[in-house]
Amino acid sequence: MPGTTELVAIFREIGDLLDLQGVRFKPEAYRRAARSLEALTEDLAGVAARGELRAIPGVGEALAEKIEEYLRTGAVPFLDRIRSEVPPGLLEIMRLPGFGPKTARRLWVELGIEGPGELAAALAAHRLDGLAGFGPRKIALLSAALAQVGGGPKRRPLVDAWRVAEGLLAAIRTGAPVDRVEVAGSLRRRRETVGDLDILATSTRPERVFEVFSALPEVRTVRMRGPTKETVELSDGLQVDLRVVEPAAFGAALQYFTGSKDHNVHLRSRARDRGLKVNEYGVFRGEERVAGATEDDVYAALGLPTIPAEIREDHGEIEAAEAGRLPTLVDAPDVRGLLHVHLERLGGTGGLPDAARAARRLGFEYLGVVVPEADGEVPALPRPSSGAPRIFLGIETARFPTGPPPGADFWVLRPAAGLAVPPASAPGDAAGPLLVAHLAAGVDSGAEPDRLRPWLALAAARPVAFEVTAGAGSEGLDSTFARQAVEAGAQLALGPGDVPVAAWERYRLAVGLARRAWAAPETVLNARPAEELARSWAARRGRG
DNA sequence: GCCGTTTTCGGCCCGACTGTTTTCAGTCG
Asked: How many CB atoms lie within 10 A of CB A418?
């Protein structure tokens, strides 16, 4: 079944092929539409049925027609047409790091090179020597890029990138003459996967900061260094950009490098409309800098409240800010407990006392201790000796519960692969409170988001919470689905994932994901007080 | 190909860095 994911890939390929043809502006138009489709929080066919395709940002008359054609026939003939006009191997050449469509097109037009194989042969035969604009350095870079084709840097999970970034930030803070140091980029937006790290610092001695940074043991090579910016590659292949600005520009730089691209483009066009110019050094009216020291100043200069970093994607947040309808997003202090704790997997030997200590340290009121389902047996409910935290008991099952959890407070459904979603009318509220965990497990990230869609109907039929963890993509939900779930009336349950108590702090990354989903505290199950949970669960659970 | 509180036509974000240059084009984010 063709889906939105495939159409996104089609539009991206069309963009690349148009680039290779030397067409201006259209490539970006196709990519913009692809990004919009990717972030769509509802079914594309549904939007088309209502005749609202053109309400999607970046979709106009021509692209709406292509989308409808695709939904009808499963193909976009325009793709086949331009595919026949451009050798497919050129796509691989233009995707070599450091090279792009202009270079690939020149090699094709001037030397007849149609793919990486021919390029390698041409390099070996010195056919590029003397070609205008191709000096010895560029030819060496081309050879090097060609040698590691396919082995390019991969995006990595948020938690991994976060750990690396924390180490780098600490090292810079202690070793370099810096005033402020913060992460920016997609890591600050808490994207599920991160392609590279952006670090921003203020200092009066940038060159010294770069020296210290380059000498860190994690750094393998320095890719480039200028007066304000350095790019390095870590030994694990991750690319890190470090930028140093003056304090008066810190807010503008932080805003600028936090992105996303579409968010920034939207803001800058808004600035232009108001006779202003935005860049990484500030907001300017003519020569005069009217804002720049803080992000608040930058947004205020553009007539907007400060937009939380996690939702800066141009997914409607600028319009919402303009209208004063920005949601109050859930924040880490709102989380009052964890609901999916497996004592047997905590990684320490302390069991419940250890868990209780960690909970108190993090300021949690309660823990939901979860035990596997055991037929016919009522699990013993563990209780800590002292008062806090309060302990709730959950039973983990792989099948849809048909009745209240025996002797416990709530169900944790961990759907087995291939578990069909029940009809929305089935068991219903009487089956007890339900927390659906690990929903995305087994679903390749980005594979087919439509597969998760039927679960949304469940949310409309009964109270259900979907778990969001720091490990989105592998064990948890991504924020696009989480936003759909919130819009469908479901709750979210935030947690650190299946990790030792020492790593429970990671629940904060799940908070970031929930914020990306525009989740308010009211939509987060474990932002509710213990008393409220106890009351609502006592009314429905099995035991007296 | 999209888009519009100066526009339905004529724009399309903006700057850093590299390599090849002598004033700039390409790539990147």
From this structure: 6
